[in-house]
Amino acid sequence: MTKHNNTTKPGGNGESIRTGMSEEAIRLAFLDNLFYVQGRFLEVASLDDKYKALAYTVRDRLLHRWVSTIRTYQQANPRTVCYLSAEYLPGPFMGLNLLNMGIEEPTRKALQSLGIDLESLIAYEQEPGLGNGGLGRLAACFMDSLATLQIPATSYGIRYEFGIFQQDIRNGEQVETTDNWLHYGNPWEVRRPQISYDVKIGGHTEHYTNEQGLHRVRWVPHETFRGVAIDTPILGHDVNTVNLMRLWRAEAAEALDFHAFNEGDYYGAVLREVRSETISKVLYPNDAPEIGKRLRLLQQHFFVTCSLQDMMRVHRTTGMPIERFHEKFTVQLNDTHPAIAVAELMRLLLDNHHLDWDTAWHVTRHTFAYTNHTLLPEALEKWPIPLFQSLLPRHLEIIYEINSRFLDEVRQRYPFDPDRAQRLSIIDETLPRHVRMAHLACIGSFAINGVAELHSQLLKETVLRDFYELWPEKFQNKTNGVTPRRFMLLSNPGLGSLLNETLGHGWETDLEQLRGLEAHADDPAFQERWRQVKRQRKEALAGEVHKLCGIDITPTSLYDVQVKRIHEYKRQHLNLLHIITLYNRIKRNPALDIVPRTFIFGGKSAPGYAMAKLIIRLINAVAEMVNRDRDVAGRLKVVFLPNFSVKLGQWVYPAADISQQISTAGKEASGTGNMKFSMNGALTIGTLDGANVEIREDVGAENFFLFGLDADAVSHTLANGYRPWDYYNANQELKDVIDLIASGFFAHGDRSLFQPLVDHLLQHDSYLLLADYADYIACQDQVSAAYRDPQRWTRMSILNVARIGKFSSDRTIAEYCRDIWKVQPVPVKLD
Ligand code: GLS
Q1: What biological processes does GO assign it (predicted)?
Q2: CB of 91 closer than 6 A to ligand 1?
Q3: Does residue 768 share a domain with residue 683?
Q4: pLDDT tens track for 451-493
């Protein structure tokens, strides 16, 4: 696709239509792109044509900044952060790029003059769903902050052809369909066919002695693929820095297998190509044990080796010796998904660069840092040895060697404690033997961090305790944060304007400035404007809910929201127990004076997670009964928003009154939705879990609805023979709720449908819903009471925003830069 080269506005002020920022330059650029890229003119252009013409207009301006950034980095040769993550959830790009570049207004006007509504183009964009949830979204917030803080950084990952599945709700059930996000093309990406690397798999290794008498290893793979770079520019806010998200797409090593082709096996040759591409075909949903293990390990190796080879290519251009690789690059492992990088870097240094073991190990251990994102045992990755051996024979050899040297050290340190070596070993020796990726990550990294204070503490006390005792100096905490650009400015423009007017500009990149709001918390006029902003977002969400679900909700009701992945530990079903409790109260006394509430749920369940899917069914079943019940008379509404995404989140967070963060204490590593809600003035009802603890500390206990057992009490309760029955028998409201579910009331009389859920609650209740029920209900009653007092509520809401500054991802990234990566900003001037 060639674009014509007329880059100067004809007869204008010399502003290039490729780079100009004025309304006129943007208007001309848009028409130019519509004509020369899309081959359309205004009268016949589809929405897709117009969207793309605008995207290319914005992209041209991004590329301008990108080139300046590359030039700057080439000259300065700065230390660079490489973020390795199997998942990214960046959300739609258009709105954010316009905002970060500061050309929203001229663009809106330019389009208006052509009779086009900017919002409709922004709404049209399909987002890349290249992640499961919080972990992938955190990576995207980090990219935003890295660019905004002007830190040289590249984010590496996989360009899945199909991202996280699309969720439909049919007859109350989750139905998965494929996410064909690339179907209409992706205007934000730039393919780099010349940047590609070999990816070997399978086969065997050969050990030999070279002419100089040195020991060498050759890996003779069974197959070789290629990974090709596909780049997306990531612009910072109000700066010229454009960093790179470089995602790898798998291809056959040669477009067609010529050998097979020459033999006349044309179809065999094509099939080989197709098979190679399957590596980057689809993102695996998490919480689904066992499925696609082989392909997932392949994906991890695939993107890790391409990324490390890419860093080595860049490193060569600096002229620095390979022994100083770790001075040029600092590589963050986003969970254990890229942990194979420890063995892969060793392999590249030993087998390709012929470093001796100790030097290679020194470089490796000074390159990587590891972030742990979960304490859940099922999420700690382990690979069966035979699988590992068959795919990555050379890596397994290297891992054995790393392990044997490491265990020697351990035995020396703890000569009378043989169990400890077993516990610390990379290899889990209980049959069938496994490779523990978290152990490989800990041993190969110079820093290890959790994602909230409580989580980092629990890591040291539980899953990584032996490592902590061995290397306490490696352990850190980096409490998560989220970007205020997307989650405040872009999704809540009314709030943005009010903040600008009250505090002036600057808070968007220095969120602590929100403290200035405290002075206005009791000002009745300010309070009134605050409520108007919220009211306007609630109306907007009501419109979306109507469009998506056909349900009418009332903006004057309390919006009580829980959006996140569906998981037992997140306890969406505890929320349901409350809804049914309120329902029963109304049924017992239809004249009851009750605060009208709209309960909004959203989130996907892993396709193979039966209990989570049953929870979705129950939410929809309760919605069906409650929403149409005449006694309820609209005072309770329940909505399940299908296919929750970043885009949908941008409607939801600003509209919420109450944010539900009700996980069993000790289970949610951090949570980030909790921060997005609070930034938009929602009040939290939550347990002392993850980052809730710190949010509560900062916003003030009196502005946070706390309930439930803390992490210590949870472990004690479980250790001392927890008996959910006792709670059931002791609490009449609870008993009524459970009995109603069990009776088949929400399943048209079918008592079996929700039986597994009821049985689990009564017999095991591993997530302690029944233990927390009474306190939760009492706390929800306090929420209602507070909502009846608008002055008090608004004050609490304002103070939440005023004191949420710490939870900007800018703060998190600044801490990573200072404490782990040791990198400095490198400002970029526009060429
Ligand atoms: C997660 C945790 O479950 C979240 O609590 C956390 O906020 C997020 C980012 O650190 O990481 N871990 C995970 O595997 N998925 C997540 O969302």
Answers
A1: glycogen catabolic process
A2: no
A3: yes
A4: 999 999 999 999 999 999 999 999 999 999 999 999 999 999 9
Q: Atom of ligand 1 at shortest distance to CA of 672?
A: 7
State in Å: Cα 668 to ligand 1 middle: 7
- Ligand 1 centre from 559 Cα, in Å? 25
Domain assignment of residue 826, yes or no: no
Spacing, Cα 362 to ligand 1 middle (Å): 30
Q: Does residue 430 have an active-site annotation?
A: no
For residue 672 and ligand 1, the question of a CB distance below 6 A is answered with yes
On whether both 578 and 540 belong to a single domain, the answer is yes
pLDDT band at 6 (very low <50, low <70, confident <90, very high): very low
Question: Does 135 contact ligand 1 (Cβ within 6 A)?
Answer: yes
Which is the catalytic residue, given 65, 137, 373, 637? 373
477 lines ligand 1 (CB under 6 A): no
Please compute the mean of the pLDDT values over residues 542-549 and round it to a whole number. 98
Residue 217 lies in a domain: yes
What is the helix (H) or strand (E) element at residue 223, kind and residue range? strand 223-235
Residue 382 β-bridge partners? 436
- Ligand 1: which residue has its CA nearest to atom 4? 671
Which pLDDT does position 602 carry in this prediction? 98
Cβ–ligand 1 contact at 133 (below 6 Å): yes
Cα–Cα–Cα angle for 326, 280, 373, rounded to 5 degrees? 55
- pLDDT tens digits for 775-800? 999 999 999 999 999 999 999 999 99
Q: What is the pLDDT of residue 259?
A: 63
584 in a structural domain: yes
User: ∠ CA(156), CA(154), CA(234), 5° rounding?
Assistant: 100
**CA pair distance 820, 473, nearest whole angstrom:** 12
Atom 17 (ligand 1) nearest CA: 134
Q: For 29-122, list the strands marked E by DSSP.
A: 80-84
Q: Are residues 522 and 415 located together in one domain of the fold?
A: no
Ligand 1 site, residue 451, Cβ cutoff 6 A = yes
Tell me if residue 382 is catalytic. no
Q: Is 673 in the pocket of ligand 1 (CB under 6 A)?
A: no
Q: What is the pLDDT of residues 85-106, one digit of tens each?
A: 999 999 999 999 999 999 999 9
Same structural domain for residues 461 and 423?
Answer: yes
Q: Write the secondary structure of 269-308 as one string of H (helix), E (strand) and C (coil).
A: HHHHHHHHHHHHCECCCCCCCCCCHHHHHHHHHHHHHHHH
Q: Is the CB of 374 under 6 A from ligand 1?
A: yes
Q: Does residue 474 have an active-site annotation?
A: no
The answer to whether 97 touches 58, Cβ cutoff 8 Å, is yes
Mean of pLDDT over the chain: 95
Task: Decide if pLDDT at 2 tops 50.
Answer: no
Q: In this structure, are residues 132 and 470 in contact, taking their beta carbons and an 8 Å threshold?
A: no
Same domain, 35 and 136: no
State the total domains in the chain: 3
Nearest to 805 by CA among 529, 517, 564: 517
pTM of this prediction exceeds 0.90: yes
135 plus 120 within the same structural domain: no
| Annotated active-site residue in 565, 597, 604, 635 | 565
pLDDT tens, position by position, 651-679: 999 999 999 999 999 999 999 999 999 99
Question: Ligand 1 centre from 531 Cα, in Å?
Answer: 32
Question: Among residues 223, 216, 405, 190, which one has the least CA distance to residue 301?
Answer: 223
- State the distance from the centre of ligand 1 to the C-alpha of 670, rounded, in angstroms: 6
Q: Based on C-alpha coordinates, what's the Rg of the chain? A: 28
Question: Are 729 and 638 within one domain?
Answer: yes
What confidence tier does 204 reach under pLDDT thresholds 50, 70, 90? very high
Q: Assign residue 233 the CATH number of its domain.
A: 3.40.50.2000
Residue 781 domain boundaries: 484-805
Ligand 1 atom showing the smallest separation from residue 335 Cα: 14
386 and 534, same domain (yes or no) = no
For residue 734, being part of any structural domain is answered with yes
Query: Does the complex come out with an ipTM higher than 0.90?
Result: yes
Q: How many CA atoms lie within 13 A of 119 on its CB side?
A: 3
Catalytic residue among 564, 617, 635, 667: 564
Say whether 565 is catalytic: yes
